[in-house]
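Let's practice the habit of predicting before peeking. Look at the sequence and jot down your guess about where helices and strands might fall. Then scroll down.
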Amino acid sequence: MLDKNGIAKRIAKEVKDGYYVNLGIGIPTLVANYVRDDIEVEFQSENGVLGMGPFPFEGEEDADVINAGKQTITTLPGASFFDSAMSFSMIRGKHVDLTILGAMEVAQNGDIANWKIPGRMVKGMGGAMDLVASAENIIVAMMHTNKHGDSKLLKQCTLPLTGVGCVKRIVTNLAVLEIVNNGFKLIERAPGVSVEKIKKATEGLLIIDGDIPEMDI
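Done guessing? Here is the structure:
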């Protein structure tokens, strides 16, 4: 199985030269650490940063330079800072090529729940709803099951929805999957993970077509 860095490393292979990419809170923020050096990518954070780099080394942090999750970040040459109105104009205007989000649940039709667990205090939705409503290319980075071993890839989401039918691809610690015909189509297996294990960990419809290769990371 993959750890969180392994998931981020696999997702980094989806980032193409010239892309503008929004990184959500959690696992997605790690993706910037693994993008190939021979391509140019602009990472955007909805708190008003364009041109984010990898996380800083210990001792080199600047408390004034943070991402949407309030983590300290680095910026690349040419990076810019702007207010949230400009940031959300960029998001709502569909100027982001790829959005990478974490999730608590994803349904087999592409619904996503990633902002609220009923009964728990939450500061707000943040930019999640704007991102899923505006983005045309969404990849979800998540663990396949919760801490109790229950599947997070479901027939229907049980938590309050963030967006409906918007997720295209999911990378978990077990697999790469695509939303196809109201089901999770298995594309790749994590190293050492069997198809049978993925079946047992997936509540929603799992579509398996032929031999499933292992991830190349």
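How did you do? Helices lie at 4-12, 84-92, 128-134, 195-200.
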